[in-house]
Amino acid sequence: MWKHRLTSITKRCAVVYMWISAIVALAVCVFGLVTLCAVSNELVGSHPTDQQMLDNFQAHKTEFSQLLQMFLADQKLMGVAYQWTDPANLQSAGITPERLKAYDGLFWKVNLGLALRPSLSLRRHYGQENLEAVEFTVSTRGLAVSGSVKGYVYTFKRPSLMVDNLDTYRSKDSKSFTAYRYIEGNWYLFYDYDD
């Protein structure tokens, strides 16, 4: 009789173990799907439309101009984003904490993620090593090895690949490209796609 009871208890434990395993597996799957959805929006979600970016530029022309003047004046500063600078040592770039706060406030106002003074390799990509340009990144999608970036650029040289609509433009060979849409003066929208 005790053998029968032991077998019955063992069967119940096996059933309980199976149910617990199923619940844990389901929880892991749900967590994985939620994580995948959150990450995939950043990886493959859409950039703001040209019209949204043009409207933002018109609404914040003064702030864009102020950011540009600050960045051009801070010649040793190669990049700046919220609470980040290149170089990382603010003193070596001649940037005070108050100046960084001013950048942060303007970035938040105009919905920017990053401002960069393109490196020599990027200037070569534009076709002119001495090109003075400042890129203001609005959104990025994808991974470090492939993806896309959309933003504003201020440049003294008219970019070579000009299009009427960055939202729909794709290269004929589906390869990497950087395309531009004119705004006004030396300001352009840009869309950089890297396959």
Largest beta-sheet characterization: 7 strands, antiparallel
Domains counted in the coordinates: how many?
Answer: 2
Described by its quaternary structure, the protein is single chain
What percent of the residues sit in helical stretches (DSSP H or I)? 40-55%
* Radius of gyration, whole Å: 26 Å
Question: How many separate helices?
Answer: 6
| Structural class designation | alpha+beta
Mean pLDDT rating: 75
The run of helices and strands is HHHEEHHEHEEEE
Distance between the termini: 71 Å
- Low-pLDDT stretches: 27-44, 120-129
Number of strands: 7
Widest beta sheet: strand line-up: 2-1-3-4-5-7-6
Sheet-strand content, in percent, reads 15-25%
**Overall body shape:** globular
How would you portray this structure in words?
This protein is an alpha+beta fold. It has two domains: 1-45; 50-194, no CATH class. It contains six helices and seven strands; from the N terminus they run αααββααβαββββ. It has a seven-stranded antiparallel sheet. Strand 1 (79-81) and strand 2 form a beta hairpin. Helix 3 runs antiparallel to helix 5 (97-110). The longest helix is centred in the first third of the chain and has 43 residues, at 2-44. It is globular and about 65 Å long. The termini are far apart. The model is unreliable at 27-44 and 120-129 (pLDDT under 50).
